[in-house]
Inverse folding.
């Protein structure tokens, strides 16, 4: 399996004294007996999974519910030796997947096979939003809200706001205030707008009502003045609308900075104004979702984070309604550039709970430093919940030392009947894994570490199918909510009853008493 030089290194340095080892390499037999063997040329597989051993004709895959962390610097063939083969295997195993596709090459490579196998293919093209599908991130919270599931609607809105309002290097007060204000405006849309009007264009237009003496006679302050001040929407708006003018101006500048993307990219806002697919069906019918995003800039990356979180939440909701609380079709998140997209809210909890719902993550990371910078201490939880690690190459000394330490040490004879502990594999040897031979170090579940070989996608016996071209979407007119029109058709008394909670007593003086009675 391995190149002769590396195989000799393993034998000479570490295998001779196996009777006294603290650590050792896993054998081929030990690895293969716990993996599923597949013949690549077969038309269909019983299940899909990441290939851990492969020569292109035969592969041994992990078809369990374990998550996988793939570590490899730029140019380490992560796509060609792992991601592309993985997607082909998932397609033949008839499993659903959501994949980040920075260059669009994954869709180009596998779309023909997916079409042949009867997959529902969804493409969210953030590189060129005119081509592919449309997705309204506000549709799901709107549906939750109108169905009476207010808590879930607010939770979903909070996730969206968390991703839209990016942390700045200055005082976090401005980010926090801007997020609260956006949260309040989004609540207005859920309560007052029609379903077609609940979109990001309405959000940016509603922002124009925030300043006195602007282009509109009606202002958000007028609307806010009629609201019950103990409602969530009023509380969210109050921090900005009641602030001193200078403070209010700075908060709105922060809001504008984060909403500017929606104002400037007309094709993007049109793409985000409605949905051409049902996100809740991904775990019920075999579906492939491609998130094509520019890799030369991160402007649109927060939308990827929003989609992944929203998709996951929807899958969990569907799983809860199924026998055994599992999705009928296993769904895989194959997240290339995982450490380059903004943090996905609650990612540690997501990766912990996913396995029992038939959801699996494959996280592709270029740099461990990026992962820790993005997720801070949560990075340890994310890594710890990945039972499989595939290491290709890196120049990060801390990561190399961590991998070497995880492999363990073993006793080796030093002469005169003395022994000493040495790393099973040194930092130097980790840097010399042969990319052309597809050498990689694998931690598989609870097995000893293993040096494997992963074939390049060009060496696989996958049948080739013509790529399916991306279709230009027919543009639709965007419906936009107008606060001015709303207030002309609704009385002050009607506005005062908006967002009204059943726990609230109509008599403001008795509000606290009503809450206390409920607690009792």
């Amino acid at each position: 399996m391995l190149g002769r030089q590396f195989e000799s290194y393993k034998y000479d340095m570490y295998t001779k004294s196996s009777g006294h080892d603290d650590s050792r390499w896993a054998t081929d037999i030990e690895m293969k007996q716990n993996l599923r063997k597949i013949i690549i040329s077969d038309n269909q597989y019983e299940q899909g999974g990441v290939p851990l051993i492969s020569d292109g004709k035969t592969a041994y895959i992990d078809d369990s519910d374990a998550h996988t962390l793939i570590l490899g610097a730029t140019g380490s063939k992560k796509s060609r030796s792992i991601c592309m083969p993985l997607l082909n295997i998932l397609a033949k195993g008839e499993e659903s997947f959501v994949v980040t596709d920075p260059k669009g090459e994954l869709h180009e490579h596998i779309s023909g096979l997916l079409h042949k196998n009867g997959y529902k293919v969804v493409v969210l093209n953030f590189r060129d939003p005119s081509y592919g599908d449309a997705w309204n991130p506000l549709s799901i919270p709107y549906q939750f809200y109108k169905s009476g599931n207010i808590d879930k609607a607010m939770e979903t809105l909070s996730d969206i706001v968390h991703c839209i309002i990016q942390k700045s290097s200055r005082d976090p007060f401005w980010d926090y205030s801007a997020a609260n204000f956006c949260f309040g405006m989004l609540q207005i849309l859920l309560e007052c707008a029609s379903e077609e009007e609940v979109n990001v264009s309405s959000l940016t237009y509603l922002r124009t009502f925030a300043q006195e003496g602007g282009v509109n006679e009606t202002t958000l302050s007028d609307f806010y003045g009629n609201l019950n001040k103990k409602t969530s929407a009023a509380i969210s708006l109050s921090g900005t609308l009641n602030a001193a003018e200078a403070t209010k101006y700075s908060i709105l500048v922060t809001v504008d900075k984060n909403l500017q993307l929606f104002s400037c990219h007309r094709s993007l806002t049109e793409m985000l104004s409605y949905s051409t697919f049902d996100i809740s069906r991904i775990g019920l019918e075999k579906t492939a979702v491609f998130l094509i995003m520019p890799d030369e800039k991160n402007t649109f990356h927060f939308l990827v984070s929003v989609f992944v979180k929203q998709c996951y939440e929807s899958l969990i909701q569907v799983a809860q309604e199924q026998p055994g609380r599992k999705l009928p079709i296993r769904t895989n998140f194959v997240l290339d550039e995982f450490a380059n997209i903004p943090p996905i809210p609650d990612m540690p909890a997501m990766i912990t709970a996913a396995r029992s719902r038939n959801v699996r993550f494959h996280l592709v990371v270029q740099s461990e430093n990026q992962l820790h910078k993005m997720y801070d201490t949560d990075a340890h939880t994310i890594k710890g919940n990945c039972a499989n690690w595939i290491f290709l190459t890196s120049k990060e000394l801390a990561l190399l030392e961590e991998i070497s330490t995880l492999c363990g040490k073993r006793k080796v004879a030093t002469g005169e009947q003395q022994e000493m502990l040495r790393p099973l594999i040194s930092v130097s040897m980790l840097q010399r894994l042969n990319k052309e031979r597809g050498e990689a170090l694998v931690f598989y579940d609870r097995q000893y570490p293993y040096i494997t070989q992963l074939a390049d996608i060009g060496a696989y016996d996958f049948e080739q199918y013509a790529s399916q071209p991306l279709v230009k979407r027919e543009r639709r007119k965007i419906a936009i909510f107008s606060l001015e029109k709303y207030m002309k058709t609704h009385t002050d008394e009607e506005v005062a009853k908006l967002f009204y909670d059943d726990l609230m007593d109509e008599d403001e003086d008795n509000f606290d008493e009503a809450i206390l009675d409920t607690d009792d």
